[in-house]
Amino acid sequence: MAALTTIDLPSLQKMASGKVRDLFSLPDDPDTLLFVASDRLSAFDVVMTNGIPNKGAILTLISAHWFRLLPERIPGLRTHFISLDVPAGVGPAEACAIRNRSMQVRKLEVLKIEAIVRGYITGSAWKEYQAKGTVHGLAMPEGMQLGQKFPEAIYTPSTKADAGAHDENIHPRDAWREIGDKETADKVEGLALAIYDAAAAYAEERGIIIADTKFEFARDWEGNIYLADEVLTPDSSRFWPKDGYELGKEQDSFDKQYVRNWLIREGLEAKEGVAIPEDIVQATSDKYKDAFYKLTGKTFEAAAAPS
Ligand code: ATP
Ligand code: MG
Fold first, then answer.
1. What is the DSSP track for 107-159?
2. How much is the pLDDT for 44?
3. CA dihedral for 44, 45, 50, 55, sign (positive or negative)
4. Of 3, 11, 134, nearest to 57 (Cα)?
5. Are the C-beta atoms of 86 and 106 separated by less than 8 Å?
6. Model-level pTM?
7. Considering every ligand atom, which ligand is closest to the CA of 113?
8. For residue range 64-108, what is the model confidence (pLDDT) as tens digits?
9. Cβ neighbours of residue 50 under 8 Å, at least 6 residues apart?
10. Is the distance from CB of 23 to CB of 14 less than 8 angstroms?
């Protein structure tokens, strides 16, 4: 099956297009959005010219899995998830194209913060730690090794840059400046850590270490806070296989780290107009499916089959 990299639904109005998802408004329901995940892949903030077949559906079904599970484990947690149903009014051919990759969500005001939680030291956190002994300005124990678990998970937010710009790491104490008020910032930090802890425990029982992840939160007009966007997918997180975990080295991962590593090897990091070669596409697709199976207990093919 070919990758689906552009999504147009003539019966619905496209509201916005992100690096991976397209957002459509529903004519009869101003409070709901249709969130459609394409097969596009972005790495180092650049979208590759080709996609990973089925990636959009894998991400949507993984997010839906968490949106159903997390509120059971975190009392009072609100999420933007409404349903996986394709809305009435979408024609049969379009409905077929977006089945499993679309999600109806509550339309909300997204907070201007990338709510990142890290359980293990890697990536930009490892770079900062090596240079300064800190992570997002937070003092860390001496002598940590690459890939080591933090004594407890840490909240390390970054700014949510406009398209074309890069997010900047910030100290958690400054997150409220992006959000607007301290009370909301504290709530977001508490929720992000609670969700990470619950998800990390769940995933670890299934052989996946969630090294770090990024959440987005949103609010309604009454000020209630919701978990929004995609959640705990291989795109928004670093997933490591638990059985291959080894301290002091880069871990093999279930996520797009595979593509990132290839880009670095080829010196194509952050370059525009790059196509991922077929073997890397296939390997990445296998990784996404493997993560799907481990997290949900079902093969992607079985979960995606019409019921
Ligand atoms: P951006 O478009 O901000 O650069 P991105 O490339 O990660 O981010 P996608 O993931 O492709 O974007 O698209 C999802 C977009 O939808 C994001 O901008 C996200 O903030 C926004 N979003 C998520 N949940 C909601 C919601 N409930 N209501 C409105 N917008 C939302
Ligand atoms: Mg996104």
1. --EE-SEEEEEEEE--HHHHHHHHHHSEETTEE--TT--TTPEEEEEEE--EE
2. 87
3. positive
4. 3
5. no
6. 0.94
7. 1
8. 999 999 999 999 999 999 999 999 889 999 999 999 999 999 999
9. 3, 5, 275, 276, 281
10. yes
pLDDT mean over 139-150: 96
CA of 141 relative to ligand 2 center, distance in Å: 32
pLDDT at 166: 79
Return the pLDDT at 89.
84
Q: Are 237 and 214 in contact (CB under 8 A)?
A: yes
What per-residue confidence (pLDDT) applies to 39?
Answer: 97
Q: Residue 60 above 90 pLDDT?
A: yes
Gap from CA of 303 to ligand 1 centroid (Å): 25
Asked if residues 279 and 258 have their Cβ atoms less than 8 Å apart, the reply is: no
- The vertex-292 CA angle with 287 and 297, nearest 5°, equals 130
- Residue whose CA is at the smallest distance from ligand 1 atom 1: 18
Nearest ligand to the CA of 228 is 1
For 265, phi then psi, to 5°, come to -55, -40
Q: Using only the alpha carbons of the chain, give its radius of gyration.
A: 19
Assigned token pair, 64 = 């839906």
The tokens of 285 are what?
Answer: 């697709």
